[in-house]
Amino acid sequence: MNKTDLLSEGKTKKIYNTKNNFEVIIHYKDNITSFNGKKNELISYKGVLNNEINSCIFKFLNSCGIKTHFIKKINKREQLCHKLKMIPIEFVVRNFICGSLSKRLKIKEGTKITNQITEIFYKNDKLKDPFINDNHAVFLGISSYNELNIIYKIINNINNYLNKYFYKKNIILADFKVEFGKNYKNEIFLSDEISPDTCRLWDKITMKKLDKDPFRKNMINKKEILNIYTEVLERLNKE
Questions:
Q1: Are 18 and 4 in contact (CB under 8 A)?
Q2: Which residues of 153-188 are buried (b: 16+ CB within 10 A; e: fewer)?
């Protein structure tokens, strides 16, 4: 399990190789970002909270039969995970109108979507992660139609499980982003993270935002952001 060399580093995480060729260690940094990294700040202890929150959610999804990269949390900031070859697509699942979708369609934020909307974005920093469709993904050679169909089925199950999971914690899952990768057997696994960094979470009664949206909009300070993430973790840990 001992980590060896640094494999890669992103905006909010570092990934290390281990002595096991099929496993990696993911280290959660204290960065909080938005607008494709244009806004990037350090908030002490934030990485610890995201590691804890993501561990709770991925443990739950593992228990539901969803194949995820998560094996176990090994310390306050790190997880042991399956090593995957990432598919360079971000899948954004929409249950309510909010964010960029509200701006694009000129529909009021908070409007309930009666049919789940899943959008895909090409993970390419130089192109600023453009919005694409299935045909683009196949043309670019980053996925096949069969792989996309498998992923969409997994996403539908994830959304169903998480909606119920969060609702029991008095949280509405407005939207969320997920990523996938393939292991050495070419099996598709849920990867990356699910946390207030990658979801829009609203209090079921007050509609208070329990995610990083207030950070995007410069509505709160660093201490208040930590309070929000701490509240989410406390709710998830309640039976």
A1: yes
A2: ebbeebbebbbebbeebebbbbbbbbbbbebeeeeb
pLDDT band at 210 (very low <50, low <70, confident <90, very high): very high
H or E stretch at 57: helix 46-63
Contact 1, 71 (CB under 8 A): no
How many Cβ atoms sit within 10 Å of the Cβ of residue 207? Answer: 11
Which contiguous run of DSSP H or E holds residue 148? helix 145-168
Residue 110 tokens, joined: 């908070």
Measured CA to CA, the distance from residue 216 to residue 46 in angstroms comes to 16
- Tens digit of each residue's pLDDT (9 = 90 or more) over 214-238: 888 887 888 899 999 999 999 999 8
Residues 121-136 pLDDT 10s? 999 989 999 999 999 9
* Residue 37: pLDDT band with limits 50, 70, 90: low
Buried b (16+ CB within 10 A) or exposed e, 103-120: eeeeeeeeeebeeeeebb
